[in-house]
Amino acid sequence: MNATPAQRPAGGSKARAGVLPPAASQLLPGSQLIKAYGGRNHVVAVEADGFRYEGALFSSLSAIAKHITGTHWNGLLFFGLRKRRTYPPKPRRNG
Which of 17, 29, 44, 61 could cysteine-pair with 11, CB 3.0–4.6 Å? Predict the structure, then answer.
């Protein structure tokens, strides 16, 4: 049976095996992330080599967010670990 892209083992081509990506590396193994979405709480456990959700090991929070929602999400934004960038309004031109 082939694993779906979201469920492929941690340490794929973009990440070295056993090393979390830089933004996620600030999360300590043993921590839990809880996201309320779709009428339920989704619990993710941070591990040294990835993120565990519903018994499966994922290489990124983005993969878990896509698994939960069915659409692409930045994992840090989805789990509330980073704020969306905002840009100042462009000045209006007169005339």
Answer: 17
Q: Which domain holds residue 26?
A: 5-78
Domain count, the chain: 1
pLDDT tens-digit map of 25-48: 688 999 999 999 999 999 999 999
Q: What is d(CA 24, CA 28) in angstroms, rounded to the nearest whole number?
A: 9
Q: Is 29 exposed, middle or buried (0-12, 13-18, 19+ CB in 10 A)?
A: exposed
> Within 13 Å of residue 20, how many CA atoms lie on the same side as its CB?
20
Q: Do the domain assignments include residue 27?
A: yes
Whether residue 90 is contained in a domain is answered as no
Burial state string for 63-95 with b = 16 or more CB within 10 A and e = fewer than 16: bbbbbbeeeebebbebbeeeeeeeeeeeeeeee
